[in-house]
Amino acid sequence: MRVLGLETSCDETAAAVVEASDGLRGRVLADVVHTQQDVHEKWGGVVPELASRDHLQRVLPVIDEALREAGCELRELDGISVTRGPGLVGALLVGVQVGKSLALASGLPLVGVNHIEGHLLAVLLAEQAPAPPWLALVVSGGHTSLYVVRSLGEYEPLGHTLDDAAGEAFDKVAKLLGLPYPGGAHIDRLARSGDPRAIDFPRGLSRRSRAVFDFSFSGLKTAVLMHVREHGVPQGQALADLCASFQEAVCDALTQRAVRAARQARLSSMVICGGVAANSRLRELARERCAAEDIALYLPEPRLCTDNGAMIAMAGAHRLLRGERADPAMSADPGWRL
Ligand code: KG4
Ligand code: ZN
Q1: How confident is the model at residue 211 (pLDDT cuts 50, 70, 90)?
Q2: Which residue out of 88, 172, 188, 276 has the highest number of ligand 1 atoms within 8 Å of its CB and is therefore the one to mutate?
């Protein structure tokens, strides 16, 4: 089954063609991502109106490019999958309307999928993928959650962030330090020459917290703010030390809870996905801690971790294979919970 996947939930316009044999694994035939980073950079964050307008301008050329790359025409495919939510409503609507129009014009079946399900199933397109069940840590600019993937289509939420997403915390701290948006990768780079023990930042929720698998990053963000207020914006080695200490606090909290969740749910495989999964310290610490607990760790390549159309095509493929079809009245659902 060959599926076109469309993703426009935030600041990436993406289209991809994926071939899924039995719905369990897939192969990427084309994967085109247009990022709006330069549109939002000077505002220090995503501006919803600008995002919608840019999606409108880019979505058809991006789809054309994906079909060209896959070497096929729309009518040669077997279905269309589009992100219905969660995300920015105006941005989502562009993808949903284009998906519906293409499905109507071509007669192909259409399915609307949850963006988080896309992140959870992106690993099925990687070279190495586990068989369900597995523990998934989704860490991006918009989400920080732990799920048990029981089977394809069956997801059990174990915990979420109570305030900022991990990527959001990275971006806000970077902004505070005068680094460009999005700041995660800049902090990662600066942290490499810093001392992670230089500043003892808080790790978020205490162990005694009732919801043991939830996360919180706003206290950490405030601690960085207080530090900067007291000492000024650091430069040189002090900047590297602050970045390393902040990053260590985030990665420690993420990996500690993820490993604890896997152990408690008796899962021997873990997948980390979402944009923050590109963080070098998170990858290193997760490898260390999973090895110590005999948990097989899967880290899909960064291209599959950040927002893309292939993960949406993959999530849609297994739904289409099971006969699921979008309601003709389907619309965007910006607050859709998986
Ligand atoms: O998954 P993604 O591309 O988009 C969302 O769905 O949000 O994730 C983007 C987030 C941004 O917050 C960005 O700063 C963060 O991922 N990010 C990183 C790194 N690379 C990207 N955070 C920390 N370290 C990195 N190397
Ligand atoms: Zn995402």
Answers
A1: low
A2: 276
Does residue 2 sit in helix, strand or coil?
A: strand
* Greatest Cα-to-Cα distance within the chain, rounded to the nearest angstrom: 63
CB–CB of 306/8 below 8 Å?
Answer: no
Cβ < 6 Å from ligand 1: which residues?
10, 140-142, 167, 170-171, 182-185, 188, 274-276, 278-279, 306-307
Cα distance between residue 116 and residue 274, in whole Å: 9
Amino acid identity, position 78: D
Query: Probe ligand 1: pick from 217, 306, 308, 338, max atoms within 8 Å of CB?
Result: 306
Q: Is 175 helix (H, G, I), strand (E, B) or coil?
A: helix
SS3 333: coil
d(CA 198, CA 146): 29
Cβ atoms of 5 and 310 within 8 Å: the answer is: yes
- Identify the sign of the CA torsion 226, 228, 232, 238: positive
Helix, strand, coil share (%) of the chain residues, nearest 5: 45, 20, 35
Contact 113, 324 (CB under 8 A): no
Beta strands at 144-151 and 269-273: parallel, antiparallel or unpaired = unpaired
Structure-token pair, residue 33: 């991502």
pLDDT in tens, 235-276: 999 999 999 999 999 999 999 999 999 999 999 999 999 999
Query: Is the pTM of the predicted complex or chain greater than 0.90?
Result: yes
